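Give me the fold.
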Amino acid sequence: MSGALAKLLCLGLLVLAPACQQLPAPAVTPPPAAVTATPASGYAAVAPVVSPESRYVFGWGEIPAAVAKPRGGSTQGTAVTLAPAQPLPLASIAAAGDAFNRDRAAILALAGDYRTSFHFMESLGLTTDYHPARSYHSWATEHIRVITDTGRFISLQHTLVMFFSNPNGSASAPMLTKHWRQDWTYEDPDLHTFRGDATWARRRPSPAEASGAWSQAVFQVDDSPRYEALGRWEHAGNLSVWTSERAWRPLPRREHSVRKDYDVMEGAHRIVLTPTGWLHEQNNWKRVAGESVSTPRYVAAEIGLDRYERITAPSLAAADEYWKKTGAYWALVRRVWTEEFARRERFTLQPKFQDKALFEHHFAYAEKLAEGQPFDAADAERHTRATLTGFLGGPPAR
């Protein structure tokens, strides 16, 4: 495994990685316009310490200092320059002639270069032995590009392009890797939803459910499915917000290796456009068992705030070169997955095939292309089909 990939595993941004220590945010250069300055750390100041043993945490009050300190990564990022704030509604939304095109403009506005911060905190417990868990905090610099736009379908690909501070104060070369993907489909008649136990199954919403709605399907770094939910955009004055239905997700990467007391993340989420980018807000329930259990049991609730703030520096253009070299391969992976979705009413993903996780198979192949190996479409297709068939336990039953 490369040093860059190992670092991203430690950050908890890629796969089911162990938690690391708290991750300091990159320093911030505010935009030139009259925008409120961000603290040097990039985040709100911590409340004054009442005693060496406790800290104030919003919503909890005084809790032990060891619990109040968030978990996350341990790497220092280089400075970023925030883009000037834009008035809302965005010009592209204001100019749209109808609700459908306002929705499209809002989805397309999610693309760009961002400093991203991830914040998660449990807000309550539902068991007699519950104690507040440590919150989670991490960061990234991330490029989001439109890879497909057919009108009623828009696909947005996230790519991490991260710069780290070396011990001598210099900046590292960009560390780049493919990240998650979000697909938006208007009036989607065919969803693939998580059912627990590494299993996904087809869900066909009624015409009334799908009318005017957009599904958001989220995929892992290896293009395997994560979750999918229907939701609706609302545009009112300077507010543009998409609100999802309540849906299931696998344990998030930040939780998988440190929590064994629940199996399913069940919740709703919102995406809100802001003058400086957008916010992904989550309200999650941590559920013990999946659909095989008639009476659910929940251990806790959690709130999450993922902030995407537009930046003008550093340049994240390294993503362009990566996609020039690897884009054809990842397009093939997406096509094969689309075919598998069409063929399978239900499927379970195996954790390993040939002693490797799915992302390891795909990342190793893509890395050869990124290093300059020519793309061989026939070889790539053989590799992709054999790999996915192995993880899906063979072809579907007839």
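The chain has two domains: 3-43+54-314, 320-391.
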